[in-house]
Amino acid sequence: MSVLKQIKRPVEKEMAEFEAYFNKTMRSEIPLLKIILNYIFRRKGKQMRPLLVFLTARLNGEITEATFIAATFIELLHTASLVHDDVVDDASERRGALSINALWNSKIAVLVGDYLLSKGMLISVEKNRFDMLEIVSDAVRLMSEGELLQLQKARKFNLKEEDYFKIIRSKTAALLSACTACGARSVSEDPETIQMMKDFGENIGIAFQIRDDLLDYDGKGMTGKTAGNDIKERKITLPLIHALEQTTYMKKRHILGIVKNRKKTKAEINEVINFVSENNGMEYAEFKMNLYRDKALAILDSYPDSDVKESLKEFVSYTTSRQN
């Protein structure tokens, strides 16, 4: 049994029901939109975010229709953000398939992303879940701010560690903390429980992103991107930030010169990867990732033992040990 299948077990039935529930919201009478939504639905990913909503809800109470609303809203927001990200990054592929902007064009992709976002907001309004609308709207704000901060810093190649954490806290962790906060909110009104679950999701999100950035340097597993892809795309992440802080001014200038260059040889990319490895960039990033992983696990420790708690512990471990 795959790790994700095992993690899903306590909410297997709900996840199967969610698929039909979500599919219903993805219907449209506009022919072009119908084709695009069908394309998006057919190549859905691992659905880790809805899974996190259901597991967090079950940890804190009994799953209700509100949990399905939360999972649908989150998945619509996540899908919208991926469509918009591909436009921002000018990416032609997503999960090994052509992106919406590559198959159609950027104008259509932006409008489809907007449509998905508005669908999520409408669902929460129709069901009178303004509490969830507030949580998710705050996540959208943070995600946009994080993307803009990254674009601003990327131009100058002067990303510091505190900037990196600010960006990933906004870009990646905000959505995962919205998952766990909405999951808790769907079954509980206790502000302390909701905040604790929000913190839980944020810690998972930060650890998840650091793992993603590490995969680009260690080149293990089927990451969906070749090792050195971030370097090729002139992205500065935690392993490189730390390595640059450990070296001389001249070496730093040389390495940044390679990263800034739009056209790099394979040898130059390997030089940067080796530089990061030699200056403990990967060990440091792994250390930081494990700190956030342990913070998430410590929150779970305040709950009594159960199959749901066990699944969430496995979820946390999976995010920090995955090979893709």
Which descriptors would you attach to this protein?
324 residues, mainly alpha, Farnesyl Diphosphate Synthase, two-stranded antiparallel sheet, 1% strand
Structure description:
The protein is mostly helical. It has one domain (22-321): Orthogonal Bundle (Farnesyl Diphosphate Synthase), CATH 1.10.600. 76% of the residues lie in helices and 1% in strands. The protein contains 16 helices and two strands. It has a two-stranded antiparallel ribbon with strand order 1-2. Strand 1 and strand 2 form a beta hairpin. Helix 5 (65-88) runs antiparallel to helix 7 and helix 8 packs antiparallel against helix 9 (161-185). The protein is globular and about 60 Å long. The two termini are 17 Å apart. The model is unreliable at 221-225 (pLDDT under 50).
